[in-house]
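Follow-up to my post from last week.
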Amino acid sequence: MFTILATTTVSMYLAVGAVMFVVGAICMATKRNAIGVLMGIELVLNGANINFIAFGSQYLRPNSLGLDGQLIALFVIVLAAAEAAVALAIALNFYNNHTSIDVDRADELKG
Amino acid sequence: MINLLAVSWGDFYFIIFAGVACIFALGVLLTSNVVRMAFYLIISLGATAGLFFLAGAEFVGAMQLMIYVGGTLVLLIFGVMLTAQSRFISMKTHPRDWLLAVIVGGSLLMVLLTAAFGVPEWHNEQQVQAAVSSLETADSKTATPLGLALTGVRVDKLDQMDQQLKEGMSGYLLPFVIVSIHLLVVLIGAAYMARAKRMVRFVREEEPEAPGENQDQE
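User reply:
Got it. Predicted complex:
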């Protein structure tokens, strides 16, 4: 059979997850806006989730992780929502107290 | 002329969704405008949900769309709107920080890609064909097994012959309960922390001032 596209494998999913993870990590390191740092965290969690789904997919490998991968991905999604709520509350509190959202200004606890 | 019937549409859509997810994730990184970052993040996470659908995890994909794109990102956009002063919309990063982050991130990407393509079993096309041909039906209904696994019953592993493996295959009832309580506590805490504090000040201004009592105010 003639195919022009490479067959999708687990490695390709892992590559997409790796790119999203690294982009999110760089985002966390370079953004000065606290909301931007939060978006980097979301990207990192999604990159990890792609890996769980890829290892759990029964379409990609015969002996896959099965339903465990999807369950862990669900837990990650729910915990990411909780984390975003708390982090946003902290960011708003910081903004109310300092009238700034720049993370470089959050240096009151520096040693 | 490409014969359209010979194109494997799953692989085609994988390329589309993977490209959109990666390119818009890079867009989140490269733009300095926080409103555009939020928009690019929505598209990137939506394409990730498409990848979940393609991998046969349709319930997780739907949850990704509902919780992430519908909930978490709306929360983030509210955060952007509540802090949207013109000097915070677009904050530039020092080039030195960029250089350091790109060096560290690039080496991390190299390590991860080497690991992803390092295991032969993970990019073997025969494995994919074996997996697809071993499936009896091509439909994927994961919502019911997922829900039962969350209540502690693993209906997807009932045919596990190995008794020792079967014992370790418990459900996810305890993590489910822990996550539920965690979510409840976290949301109460977030609402408490983000509450409006002006009411307290307003009430304090209304009170008649007693001598020697307002020393604690700033």
